[in-house]
Amino acid sequence: xxxxLGFIGALLPLMPTTIFLILVTGCFARSSRRLEAWLLRHPxxxxxxxxxxxxxxxxxxxxxxxxxxxxxxxxxxxxxxxPTLLLDLxxxxxxxxxxxxxxxxxxxxxx
Length: 111
Prior knowledge:
DUF454 domain-containing protein; DUF454; mainly alpha
């Protein structure tokens, strides 16, 4: 299921990709070494998954896209839900914390 969601996310804007592939790589590490190796060697997703596994690293482009998605998601939430001030602050603070975590990750090492 996570593999399918990850590949759908690679094709659709605003659908996350990497988080699903990180989850599936963890699952495959415990169940199928062959499928785990396939994902880690994949030409498109492998470098990102290996960087996360080895260093907890996120590339600059991915950080920018993730933060842009957070801003867009918050804007759509605010526009569509018209939240109370308290809910607005709670959601906003949670998203700022997520963005801070993403930004704080190191950059991947060059091969």
